[in-house]
């Protein structure tokens, strides 16, 4: 079932991003039996199986709470993510998560708030333009958004400027760009990128042929003189 697979990905995203260490995203996604077991419960639609309090599985069609159905809006998922990550839900997001454009500049989400936001966005099919400028998400939050964008094939424009993404965020964004074929505009300016950041982002931007506008390419090229980034600048300018 398509919905079932995407819901597992949604819950898996939350579980792998709970820790704040410096593992790479590929290491975080290594399968673990207890994570697999945890993601299998409470993520299925009304026609699938559910879990009893004692851990046993109910047969198809049975349910402890027949009134608790799959929420296609993602609101329930977001509230659960906030609770698990111990952050306060943003009312604005709850009100506008079904809009075509979501602008949440200067909300002070931080790394944890950004991770909570990323979870329901994995399966969101409404938002096409996402502006998260100046939310101080840092590398950890940037990695969460990058993982989300690997799965979401509807968002076409993203603004992550002024979020202090640093090298860790650059590495995650680079990995995303090698898989995402939907983004056409990406703003990464003001993120304290270094030469190492450019080493990650430069080749990824060259590989990604869908991205038409990448703000910060010029500024990073001028500050690092990275040859990969310079090649990308020449291509986008032309």
TrEMBL record:
Transmembrane segments: none
Family matches, as Gene3D superfamilies: Ribonuclease Inhibitor (3.80.10.10)
Disordered as annotated region, ranges: 16-69
SMART domains membership: LRR_RI (SM00368)
Compositionally biased region (Basic and acidic residues): 26-69
Pfam families, A to Z: LRR_6
InterPro entries per the UniProt record, alphabetical: Leu-rich_rpt (IPR001611), LRR-containing (IPR052394), LRR_dom_sf (IPR032675)
Top-level taxon of origin: Eukaryota
The protein's name in its UniProt record: Uncharacterized protein
Source organism of this protein record: Channa striata (Snakehead murrel)
């Amino acid at each position: 079932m398509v919905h079932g697979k995407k819901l597992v990905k949604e819950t898996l995203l939350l579980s792998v991003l709970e820790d704040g260490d410096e593992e790479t995203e590929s290491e975080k996604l290594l399968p673990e039996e207890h994570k697999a077991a945890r993601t299998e419960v409470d993520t299925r639609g009304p026609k699938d199986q559910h879990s009893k309090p004692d851990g046993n599985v109910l047969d198809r069609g049975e349910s402890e709470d027949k009134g608790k159905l799959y929420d296609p809006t993602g609101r329930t998922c977001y509230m659960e993510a906030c609770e698990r990550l111990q952050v306060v839900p943003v009312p604005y997001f709850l009100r506008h998560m079904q809009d075509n454009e979501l602008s949440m500049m200067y909300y002070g989400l931080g790394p944890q708030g950004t991770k909570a936001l990323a979870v329901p966005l994995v399966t969101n099919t409404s938002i096409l333009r996402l502006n998260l400028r100046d939310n101080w998400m840092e590398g950890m939050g940037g990695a969460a958004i990058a993982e989300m964008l690997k799965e979401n094939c509807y968002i076409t424009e993203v603004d992550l400027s002024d979020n202090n993404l640093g090298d860790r965020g650059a590495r995650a964004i680079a990995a995303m760009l090698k898989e995402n074929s939907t983004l056409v505009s990406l703003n990464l300016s003001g993120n304290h990128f270094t030469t190492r950041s450019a080493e990650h982002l430069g080749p990824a931007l060259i590989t990604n042929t869908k991205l038409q506008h990448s703000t910060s390419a010029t500024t990073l090229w001028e500050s690092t003189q990275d040859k990969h980034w310079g090649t990308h600048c020449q291509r986008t300018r032309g």
